[in-house]
Amino acid sequence: MRTIRLKELPEELRDRIVVRHRSNQGYKISSAALKVPKSTVASIILKWRKFRTTSQPELLLEKNLVHRLL
Known about the structure:
It comes from Fundulus heteroclitus. Helices cover 67% and strands 0% of the residues.
């Protein structure tokens, strides 16, 4: 039986995933080393590529939209 994680990963762990990605480690190796599912590693890297940060991208998006409206 699989356990479902609803908690957000700590920012430190997300940063470590990005560091491993930037040092050309693959999803499989990174996920095994950090004990995080491959799909989670992939989604964190995709968000990092889009927003260039590992903090809350949804909040950054809202700030950018508000800034554009002003």
